[in-house]
Design goal:
two-stranded antiparallel sheet; 69% helix; mainly alpha; 2 strands; flat; single chain; 407 residues
Length: 407
């Protein structure tokens, strides 16, 4: 029962954070990042805690992880609601209706013999998917081709409705039991729909006006030409005619810098640049991989139903299409964490590589180090190896031109 309470706390933290981030309030702020990282650390720690072969944090440490995550989610929710213009009356009514339906879903699932955790996951899926239908999914799109733009938006809405229907279908069978194959079919459809939503975000917005996309497209090219990507100057996407058509009126700038992005993202973008496809498809593949890892971790820990529902929940986060369009590569962090959780402790060398890749993708992963160390403390060589991999990613760029890398 104690483990179920921890899982419920993790689910609640993630739902609070996801709701708070729906209007994009605080997404790229320090409180938003800390809340998401703590919630993610709690979920990974809880999943591994169900596996007796892995060291699990004691209850006090789990509580210490849980409370800041919930507090961070509550803070972001408060920050979102107090912003003028973010929630019009229609949206408030819509969110209220979605919340009521989610509550009914939890009650129905519980009455039909689902356990507390699975009932909460089903309700969370109904809530988050319903919230997605109320929110705009693309910031830029293709305003110069309105007909195609409407087709893409209609396709995104159709996928959202399909995902909502899949979550409601769990109410007819809220426990897998002997019908595990039927659950797997639902999950396969969720994976297909979730992947399609992310692909449509790339296809429907081929040229987003955002510096991270410019950097991810050009930094690997500089590296392939033997140039250091960090002192290089990148063409600014702002202040251009294209940006003006997108209703972005930032002051013109001829060039922009590297922006402090970590070098791991350059390496993961190399295949896309070499093969000539949009770097955002790397993020799409990473999101799908992360969802698969969540399912496999649940199965390995003897909680296949919980793993399947948690994987489906990850696939229907409300701002998934928006994040994909904006080129934010947090899905790569999710994939690295998922592989680490899947391979730890049976394939320690692989777990160390995955954790090292995580260290090389974002500087703020340092906030997760205490939680990750708790997971690795019985297998400290995995953590040391991961630190070595992370250092191998950073050091060549640091030594190449230290001032350019740091400033």
């Amino acid at each position: 029962m104690a483990t179920d309470v921890r899982v419920l706390a993790a689910i609640g933290a993630l739902v609070l954070v996801a709701l708070a981030l729906c209007p994009n309030a605080g997404f790229y702020t320090l409180p938003g990042m800390i809340a998401m990282l703590l919630a993610a650390a709690l979920v990974i720690g809880t999943c591994l805690g169900r596996d007796r072969t892995v060291a699990a944090a004691p209850s006090a440490e789990t509580l210490a992880l849980c409370l800041p995550a919930v507090a961070g989610g509550a803070y972001l929710l408060w920050a979102a609601l107090r912003q003028k213009g973010l929630f019009v009356l229609e949206l408030e009514i819509g969110l209220g209706l979605v919340g009521v339906l989610a509550g009914v879903a939890v009650g129905v699932a519980r009455v039909r013999a689902a356990n507390l955790v699975q009932s909460a996951l089903i309700g969370a899926g109904v809530f988050l998917t319903g919230t997605t239908a109320l929110l705009p999914q693309l910031r830029y799109g293709m305003p110069w081709q309105p007909d195609l733009n409407y087709i893409m938006l209609a396709a995104l809405l159709a996928c959202t409705v399909a995902m909502y229907a899949l979550w409601l279908s769990f109410l007819a069978q809220p426990q897998a039991g002997a019908r595990w194959r039927g659950w797997c079919v639902r999950w396969g459809l969720m994976l297909l729909v979730g992947g399609t939503i992310r692909v449509l975000a790339v296809v429907g917005s081929p040229d987003p006006v955002i510096d991270v996309h410019t950097w991810l497209e050009n930094a690997p090219r500089f590296l392939l030409q033997g140039q250091n990507p960090y002192p290089a100057r990148y063409p600014s996407p702002y202040g251009t005619e294209h940006a003006h058509r997108m209703h972005i009126y930032d002051a013109p700038a001829e060039h922009i810098g590297a922006g402090g992005y970590a070098p791991g993202a350059i390496l993961t973008a190399l295949p896309a640049v070499v093969l000539g496809f949009d770097v955002r498809y790397i993020n799409v593949a990473a999101d799908v991989l992360a969802a698969v890892c969540i399912l496999l971790v649940g199965m390995r820990c003897g909680a296949r139903e919980t793993g399947l529902l948690a994987s489906g929940l990850y696939l229907c986060l409300p701002r998934a299409a928006y994040m994909t369009e904006q080129s934010w590569y947090e899905p790569q962090l999710a994939a690295a964490l998922g592989l680490f959780a899947l391979w730890m402790p049976r394939r320690r060398w692989a777990a160390g590589l995955a954790l090292g890749a995580l260290f090389g993708l974002k500087q703020y992963v340092a906030l997760m180090v205490p939680a990750l160390w708790q997971i690795c403390r019985r297998h400290w060589r995995v953590f040391v190896g991961a630190a070595a991999v992370g250092a191998a990613i950073y050091l060549p760029f640091v030594l190449w031109d230290p001032p350019a890398f740091w400033w």
